[in-house]
Structures are given as C-alpha cells and as structure tokens.
Design goal:
167 residues, alpha/beta, five-stranded mixed beta sheet, two-stranded parallel sheet, 3 helices, globular
Length: 167
C-alpha cells in the first residue's frame, strides 16, 4: 500500500505510449495527463489493466470547452485506484468542428450516462456508445448549452443596477 506514485504513473505511460502522452502536470497533488484523443481508450485500458496501476474506478467524466484560440472541446476523466487511494485526471482535446472521441462504456459501465450528459450539454459524440441520446434537455433543443458560444448577459438590458452585483 502507498507505493503508487505520480512519477511511476508518468513513467509507465511514457514507456508504453511515448509522444501520444501530450502533457503531464501536477495540480494540488493530483496528476493530470493529456493524451491524443485517438488514444483515449488505449490509455484508459492500460491504466485499468496494468497491475501496477489499477485505475479501475471511473469517478467522473465530463466535457470542457475552451473557446479562445483553437476553440477546443475536450473530455476529462477522473480515475481512482481504490486500494492505493490514488486519483488521476486524464484529458483529451479536439477541435469543436470535429467533436468525436471513442466511448469508454466498453471499459466502464458508469460512463454510459456520463457520456450521454456530456453529449447533451457539449455536443461531444462518443463513438461506440450504446444509446447516445439527450438525457436532460429536450430532443429538439438545437444547441448544446454548456458550450461557451453565447454572451453571459444581454447587453441591451438596462433594468439592472450593477451596484447590487459588485461591479
């Protein structure tokens, strides 16, 4: 117990995948690994099946949208090795114009509804998902509400007193 270090995880991934691991960083003690989107399932399978790693629990899966610069969408996976009590984050990014990534449902059954929610709110298409339909919004919504494509406030409104909002 307690032998699984961030450096061991990084070394194992870089030995196995080389430059397919695009970046690693440690924020607040949690290791974050960024991978090429076409290798997301290879990396997740390796993290799951490699005996010295054992990340067998998918804590969370969600989408992100960075609309500055390259206008990227991404998927973020939070994985947990329960016996060692180690958590890591795996990210994969892709252009908003091509929002497709492989589904993790073949490895984690819990990814099913998380991927549906991510599809619903971000428009990310999970290839191989067994039932990729909207889960919370109406079917004919026509947009994905968590994308940063709309102004946060209506600039034509004059009925608000900004002094109440600390501005």
């Amino acid at each position: 117990m307690g032998t699984l270090t961030n450096q061991h995880i990084i070394d194992s991934l870089q030995n196995r995948f080389g430059d397919k691991i695009e970046a690693t960083e440690e924020s607040y003690g949690m290791l974050t690994i960024t991978v090429e989107r076409t290798y997301n399932m290879n990396v997740l399978n390796f993290l799951y099946n490699e005996p010295s790693l054992g990340f067998t629990f998918l804590t969370d899966l969600t989408g992100v949208h960075y609309n500055q610069g390259a206008d990227l969408l991404g998927v973020v996976y939070h994985l947990h090795n329960l016996p060692e009590n180690v958590r890591i984050r795996v990210k994969a990014f892709f252009p908003k114009a091509d929002p497709v990534i492989d589904s993790a449902t073949t490895l984690f059954q819990s990814a099913n509804w998380m991927e549906r929610e991510t599809y619903d709110f971000f428009g990310i298409i999970f290839t191989g998902h067994p039932n990729l339909i909207r889960i919370l919004n109406v079917d004919d919504l026509g947009y994905h509400p968590m994308r940063k494509e709309y102004a946060l406030e209506d600039p034509t409104r004059h009925d608000k007193d900004d002094s109440f909002f600390g501005r």
